[in-house]
Design a protein that fits this description.
Layout (H helix, E strand, L loop, with lengths): L14 H10 L5 H10 L6 E4 L6 H11 L4 E5 L6 H14 L2 E5 L3 H7 L10 H17 L4 E3 L16 E3 L8 E3 L7 H10 L55
Parallel strand pairs: 1-2, 1-4, 2-3, 4-6
Antiparallel strand pairs: 5-6
Helix pairs in contact: 2-3
Length: 248
């Protein structure tokens, strides 16, 4: 039984559904509404999209506490820091995650990035091959996906709601942002309270961690995501669209 009526042959969710969910859980603590969404099946079949980056452990822990069987989708781009892969394995074992690794199509890499250097001259194309396409193929099987986006990370994320419609999906998939209104202090406190391990690159000046060729250390006073695609007019990999507006 679903709390939001939908027509299976049409869009899964509408903008009005997202508005209703945002209003329903306004003022509710994250742990409470997240558990209600998962246990109440308010968003149908759900998956978590995780980069196992700097703050990923918080969302993964929250999800695992509610339902450890929720699939955790990890995009294995072939360009990750070794530290990220080790951290991924550590969190998977510690939290008992149902992790699913997604890979780019070999045929796509052979025809569009044979040298493996597309990131150096076309980062958008590289992200499309290694992240956007593999994820799109899998997300068609889900009604909603959880993200780890937070408002304090960058100006493009400052006004995002908890619930929104995925603009890249014509079928009305729901995108859920459990940590969107968390502060950096909230994140740190959660790590300490639950004794969660930190990504090893954080102490080396990487507050936001993506693929190794396109991630640099961040200087004092810089935006937390300033080290991502530095020198390029690019702020997102394509999974999340820059400038997405809330429905409230």
């Amino acid at each position: 039984m679903r709390a939001i009526d939908r027509i299976d042959t049409g869009p899964r969710f509408s903008e009005q559904d997202a508005i209703r969910l945002n209003r329903m859980f306004r003022g509710t603590e994250t742990e409470e509404w997240l558990r209600a969404v998962i246990e109440g099946n308010l968003a149908g079949d759900m998956a978590v999209v995780s980069s196992f980056g700097a703050e990923s452990a918080v969302l993964l822990h929250l999800i695992a506490q509610a339902d450890a069987t929720v699939p955790v989708l990890f995009l294995e781009t072939g360009k990750h820091f070794p530290e990220t892969l080790a951290y991924r394995d550590e969190l998977t074992d510690r939290l008992g995650l149902n992790r699913v690794d997604l890979y780019p199509e070999i045929a796509d890499l052979e025809t569009r990035d044979e040298s493996g250097l597309r990131w150096s001259y076309d980062p958008d194309g590289c992200c499309d091959l290694r992240k956007v396409r593999p994820l799109e193929k899998v997300l068609v099987n889900f009604d909603a996906s959880f993200t780890g986006r937070k408002a304090f990370q960058s100006a493009t994320r400052a006004n995002l709601p908890r619930f929104e419609i995925d603009t890249s999906d014509a079928q009305g998939r729901l995108k859920i942002n459990p940590l969107i209104d968390w502060s950096a202090d909230d994140i740190s406190a959660y790590f300490e309270t639950h004794d969660l391990p930190r990504h090893p690159l954080i102490e080396r000046g990487f507050p936001s961690i993506g693929c190794s060729p396109c991630t640099r250390q961040v200087g004092e006073g810089e935006d937390a995501r300033a080290g991502r695609w530095s020198g390029w007019d690019k702020v997102e990999c394509g999974i999340h669209k820059p400038g997405e507006e809330p429905f409230l």
